[in-house]
Design a protein that fits this description.
The chain is α/β, with parallel strands linked by helices and 310 residues long. The chain is built from 13 helices and ten strands. It has helices spanning 14-18, 28-41, 63-69, 86-95, 108-115, 119-135, 158-170, 187-200, 217-227, 254-264, 272-286, 293-297, 300-309; strands at residues 9-12, 45-50, 78-82, 99-105, 139-145, 149-150, 154-155, 175-180, 205-210, 231-234. The strands form two sheets. An eight-stranded parallel β-barrel has the order 1-2-3-4-5-8-9-10, surrounded by eight helices. Strands 6-7 form a two-stranded antiparallel sheet. Helix 2 (28-41) runs antiparallel to helix 11 (272-286), helix 4 packs parallel to helix 6 (119-135) and helix 8 (187-200) packs parallel to helix 9. The structure holds zinc ion.
Amino acid sequence: MMNLPSKVKICEVGLRDGLQNEKVIPTTEQKLEILRGFIDAGYPVIEVGSFMHPKKVPQMADTDEIFKKIGTLPAGVELRALIPNVRGVQRAVDCGCKKVKLNVSASRMHNLKNLNRTPEESVAGFADCVEMANKNNIAISGSISMPFASPWEGRTPVEDVDAIIEAYLKVGINEISLSDASGQAVPNQVYELCRHVLEKYKDATWWLHFHNTRGAAAANILAAMQAGMTQFDASFGGLGGCPFVPGAAGNVSSEDVINMLDEMGIETGIDVLKVMNLSRKVSEILGHGMDSYVLRAGRSCDLIAKNSEE
Ligand code: ZN
């Protein structure tokens, strides 16, 4: 029998990874409404925004305000924000954000384009962030972009990934996300890298972040689950991309992932119909369609009810 988990944790990243690539940006009030909608739909983890320089990522300039305004959260809900450096931790402290995520690319060239520094320089900056986060009771995690392949260098050597994982562990970060931002990963490679890190780094916890650039995201999630992974990012309506990656497409759609897991009998605690309704609303705000199969086709379990009425 297939080795599968009974429960999976999904982080909604559309408010950050999705909206940061949009031309039309929802107002802060609209973002708050979407965020409350996600909380109501049952998401355990939501990536709300980022503390990048507002000139560099103007779409995320109101992240501080959103944290200040969201109010008391239901028990068990975790909101996180992406940060570039120690200034990001300071902003988290100031606005009441309790969890931050650093990023470094396993591709030297991507890291230079994205963060304007080499992976080694990024790693050198981690210790300061962890120190300030610890002092202020802020949880800190780390992400590795392009751990499978990059558009500039092809397949990423496992040693490069190991070096970054070890740098994270060394500064005291043991929650790590493997992010296929360029959508180049394939299932057998995903399975092997997941097995590798699970066996080698027993004290770490893992997130997987797949973009559906080449249609392999759902297959990659299945491969990761079979390897023993249980935490995945997804973006409502399949929003997302990366301004530095040629031909980049959105994250795997939350609706598609949650629906697939529902049909497989794997619990997420998230109401997919509520997510679909939110996507439709945001689609109107953004002025374009959403890239989600389930949003277009509907749930297969709804077809039976519909067809039996006819
Ligand atoms: Zn992404």
